[in-house]
Amino acid sequence: MPDPRPAEKIRTGIPEFDMILRGGLPRERLHLLEGAPGTGKTTIATQFLLRGREDGRRGLYITLSESVQELGASAASHGWSLDGIGLFELVPLEARLDRQQSVLYPSEVELGETMRLIIERIETDDPELVVIDSLSELRLLAQDQLAYRRQILTLKRFLQGRRCTALVLDDLTGPNGVRELHSLMHSVVSLEQIERSFGAARRRLRIAKMRGAEYQSGWHDFAITAGDVLIFPSLIAEEHQPEFEAGTVSSGLSGLDELLGGGLTRGTTTMLLGPSGVGKSSVALQYVAAAMDRGERAAFFSFDETYETLVQRSRALGVDVEEAMATGRLGWERANPSRLSPGEFVWQVRQQVEARGARVVVIDSLNSYLATMPEETALILQMHELLTYLNNQGVVTILILAQQGVVGNVQNPVDLSFMSDTVVLLRFFEAGGEVRKAISVVKKRTGVHELSIREFRLFPDGMQVGPRLIDFRGVLTGVPAYGGTKDALLSGRNEAG
Length: 497
What we know:
The protein is of the alpha/beta class. It has helices at 15-20, 41-54, 68-77, 110-125, 135-142, 145-161, 254-259, 280-293, 307-316, 321-326, 342-355, 366-371, 376-392; strands at residues 9-10, 25-26, 30-34, 59-63, 86-89, 129-133, 165-170, 187-194, 202-210, 220-225, 228-232, 248-249, 264-265, 269-275, 297-302, 330-334, 358-364, 396-403, 422-431, 434-444, 453-459, 462-469, 472-473, 481-482.
């Protein structure tokens, strides 16, 4: 009578992979890891055996496609040693020049003999964990789908009889999508590599099938680095809803707080919108500085500016970001759109919030983030999930979106204002023969705000926000012109934003 209890889970050696699998791979089952050549199957399988070795489980790697020397060299490139893991290099009979034959069909001799050698080695080593690399070699030997399926079914029953957990690899080089074995597997993990027109290839995986066990569905980005496989589980915002203390967050500038009806609300998203150079990043940095003054941690994700530029900007505003980073009060991440996958970016944000306790998060800018994922629909869905997660965490999120153009008819490259609780509009305007900067709030879901426009300037010792200005013309054209007296305007040396 079958045991109704759920199968024990075996850790894969990749913590985030275990998270997606809700604990690991079910024990004493046959699992398929499929993907085109170069997607990372061998690396993941090796980590599976290395983790088993740490847990005191005997492991066996059966290779039909690579030599033992190649496996060892691949592991060494990651700083791993395969000592203590059984390695069995099996050269199929049809690949041996002295054993090739033409009287019997390969499906009658080569496949059966190869399977016999596999079974004999498993009986000899008596492993708890087995990797077979790869099924495509066995498929080529069979040349007959029925014979191939029969042999794999025999292998499955043999492994289950020995209470062995097996991970079989398949490089999908056969005909018809080679999915004929999915029904025989307890679980199927699919790997995929997407080549971009420019930049690094994007790797991702999904659990295509898992019998009798919970798992996180959907695609998950991952990266292979020297010494590690980094998997970035896709975000499900509703799984992260801790309690937090509501309230407003001050910018440290009374004029800006008055404009926003007291400040930004915790657990909301604010978009700073305006043309390039108008001061969006400086306004965001002002909130970062205010958070650090309150003793809170902040995180700044920059797609556009380098760390040196951030340091120079912060000095002009009277903020010492170098000291803040050294003490852990500020986390700064340089995001390269051509090298970064969307899943990795979301994971970096989560690490800053969950592991380091960031209460203010700045993303600068959405324009460059858009470049990491050309599919706009997927971008909007993923950004919506990220913002919902940050709101659930009680984080004050500040998004920066640069409009196309500087003056005149400026345009939004993508409309994400519907996902923002507050929208702050920054504009250039002309007065007294000078180009000045104006700031206004066009939307705030969580309370009232001023409907007026205020001037702001950047000084060597910080930002200054002036009183309300009412003598504007052409506000809706995108280039407001001031027609009042100069006495109401700020005075002082203006700095680039």
